[in-house]
Structure formats: C-alpha cells, structure tokens
Amino acid sequence: MKVHGQPTRTVWLEADGATVGIIDQTRLPHAFATLRLRTLEEVAHAIRSMQVRGAPLIGATAAYGVCQALRVEASDEALARACAVLLATRPTAVNLRWALEEMRRALQPLPPGERVAAAYARAAALCDEDVAINRGIGTQGLRLLEAAWERKGRKGRVNVLTHCNAGWLATVDWGTALAPVYLAHEAGLPVHVWVDETRPRNQGASLTAWELGQHGVPHTVIADNVGGHLMQHGEVDLCIVGTDRTTARGDVANKIGTYLKALAAKDNGVPFYVALPSPTIDWTLEDGVRDIPIEQRDGTELTDISGRLPSGEVVTVRVTPEGSPVANYGFDVTPARLVTALITERGVCPASPEGLLSLFPERRPARSTGT
C-alpha cells in the first residue's frame, strides 16, 4: 500500500540483506519512523511493545527474529530458544505460533551451516505468502461490497464499520478487513469507512485512519460507542473486522469491543463479517470463550493517552485518578452465532465447523477404514 504516495510494506530486509526494517507503529500517526532490528532481543521487543502489531505481521516479524538468532548461533538449542522467546511475546495471536512452527519445520532437518540462508529464504517466502493471502481476502470480500452497492440501487455510498486496525499496517501488505475496502476504492466503488477509535490504544483513530488517509479512502473517525447508534439509523451497510485467532467452529478473538459491535449488528440486522487469513485459524480449539487466552496488557495503556500539542510536540498525559485500579483486557471473543460469515483467501463461508471445512477440506479428520 502507499505512504506519501510510495508503495510500502510493513516489514522488509535492508540493503545489507540481514537487518530487518519495520515501521515503528507506536509513532503513528504523528510521525512516520522506521527502525532497524539486528538481534532476536530487538525483534522480541518490537513485537511485545507493539512497534509491530496485528496477527499476520507479528508472525512475519517473528520469522525474521528466528533469522537474527541463528546468525549468532545456529544449533538446535538456539533455534528452540529463539522460538520460545518469540512465542512468549504475545499470547493471543495464533499466527505467531504458526509462523514459528513453519520456521522450525523448514530449519530443523538442515545442518547448522545451512540454516541462516534457509531461514532468511523461508521468512521472505512467508511475507510474500501473506501478501498473496490478503490480496485473496480482498478479492473475496470485494464481492460483498459490490452486493451491498447493488442493494442500495447503486446510489449513495457503501458504509463499512470496522474496529481496531486490520488494514495493511496489521499485515505485510493489503490487510485483512480493509483489503476489500482498498480493492473497492481502486475499482471506483463509493466506499466509506466508519473508523472506531478503538480504546485503549486507539489503533483505529491513529492507525486505521492514517492508512486510509494515505490511500485516499473516505473515512470518518467515531467514538467506540457510536457504532450501534449508526446501525439503528441505517448508516452502516456492513461490518468487517479482523481476528487474531479463529476456532475450528468459527468463534473469533479480536480487539476488545468487537463482541459489542457484533451484538449491535445482530440486533439491527447488519451483516457482520470477519476477514481472516488461514494461518489465523486455530484448528485445535473449539470454544473460543473458554479456550482462547486473552492478553492482559499494562494498565498505562488505559490510564495514559498520547497526543500532539498545537506546537507539534507529542506528549503523554494521565486521564484517570491516581490510585484507581485498572483492568486492561486486550481482546474479547465473538461467538460464531453472531458472525454472518468468514472471509478467507479461499472464499466466504458460514462461521461454523462445516463452513470452514468446506473451504479447507484437508482439515477433515481421516475416516477410519475399519474391517
């Protein structure tokens, strides 16, 4: 996608072929800054501190973290240690585990002397695969936006409500929930995005609004609790959100507040779609509410807020009383019954075991032949 008119990815290799470049997303929207990551510890910090964030991008960046570790030592022990360090950075997003398993599967059989080159090659391939997957999600989801436009008699605009940031900043490129929006915009369809501010980290107001603006997509930032009101007054044609983990039966974990949007959509008859790349599906889990680990983050994300003064200086201020306890849950789980459909790179399906298996038949349990 574009930054200041130039095509840009969220993670890349620098000219030396070894250093990893990223966008420091904690500096957005007030400054566009990049960082160079040269060690496993720097990569782990970037993920933990949310300098990179979003399930697909976390996985891609972690793959390069393995590369950085193996440059120092390429033994079996070093590979296992690197994967353990990276896996501990963010517990909810399953793409992290998936990417590390992919790296381990590719590297474990190789002799240590071949692992560094192979690691960089596999990490680059994972990034390219992520781009292709998200482009596929965009193609599948575009049909839903086109159908909404037809239902409106091709008049006015198609209003999409999203929550948190599931655009290209959350992936290597294109995004998940916003990929259909970008394709619709480029196709000339009059799409408009209602952007939830998404407290407490304001990923909607700071990241989604920024990237939509960079790409020229019409959008409006709203407070988190406005979505239901807009739905009641017919101002939302469909909701599209992302997910950090999807269970085998279609429950989805996404940024805290997603569940409430799904309830409002159900009450108002507004389609509620979840866009996800296949690595986000955790086929080992069924009940998302019971089984998905929910990250609890530092309370300062809730008590403090950053902004830019008229002078241009960026400052952080406290908004809660000193001494008030804080609970900062990063995610909630939306049960499959509230999800109209799942948008994957392979197609759109019901949020159900059979719906997912219809797109991923290789995941069906092998039948016993018996005698």
UniProtKB/TrEMBL annotation:
<dbReference type="InterPro" id="IPR000649">
    <property type="entry name" value="IF-2B-related"/>
</dbReference>
<feature type="binding site">
    <location>
        <begin position="53"/>
        <end position="55"/>
    </location>
    <ligand>
        <name>substrate</name>
    </ligand>
</feature>
<feature type="binding site">
    <location>
        <position position="203"/>
    </location>
    <ligand>
        <name>substrate</name>
    </ligand>
</feature>
<protein>
    <recommendedName>
        <fullName>Methylthioribose-1-phosphate isomerase</fullName>
        <ecNumber>5.3.1.23</ecNumber>
    </recommendedName>
</protein>
<feature type="binding site">
    <location>
        <begin position="254"/>
        <end position="255"/>
    </location>
    <ligand>
        <name>substrate</name>
    </ligand>
</feature>
<keyword id="KW-0028">Amino-acid biosynthesis</keyword>
<dbReference type="InterPro" id="IPR027363">
    <property type="entry name" value="M1Pi_N"/>
</dbReference>
<dbReference type="InterPro" id="IPR005251">
    <property type="entry name" value="IF-M1Pi"/>
</dbReference>
<dbReference type="InterPro" id="IPR042529">
    <property type="entry name" value="IF_2B-like_C"/>
</dbReference>
<feature type="active site" description="Proton donor">
    <location>
        <position position="244"/>
    </location>
</feature>
<feature type="binding site">
    <location>
        <position position="90"/>
    </location>
    <ligand>
        <name>substrate</name>
    </ligand>
</feature>
<comment type="similarity">
    <text>Belongs to the EIF-2B alpha/beta/delta subunits family. MtnA subfamily.</text>
</comment>
<dbReference type="InterPro" id="IPR037171">
    <property type="entry name" value="NagB/RpiA_transferase-like"/>
</dbReference>
<feature type="site" description="Transition state stabilizer">
    <location>
        <position position="164"/>
    </location>
</feature>
<keyword id="KW-0486">Methionine biosynthesis</keyword>
<dbReference type="GO" id="GO:0046523">
    <property type="term" value="F:S-methyl-5-thioribose-1-phosphate isomerase activity"/>
</dbReference>
<dbReference type="Pfam" id="PF01008">
    <property type="entry name" value="IF-2B"/>
</dbReference>
<dbReference type="InterPro" id="IPR011559">
    <property type="entry name" value="Initiation_fac_2B_a/b/d"/>
</dbReference>
<comment type="pathway">
    <text>Amino-acid biosynthesis; L-methionine biosynthesis via salvage pathway; L-methionine from S-methyl-5-thio-alpha-D-ribose 1-phosphate: step 1/6.</text>
</comment>
<keyword id="KW-0413">Isomerase</keyword>
<comment type="function">
    <text>Catalyzes the interconversion of methylthioribose-1-phosphate (MTR-1-P) into methylthioribulose-1-phosphate (MTRu-1-P).</text>
</comment>
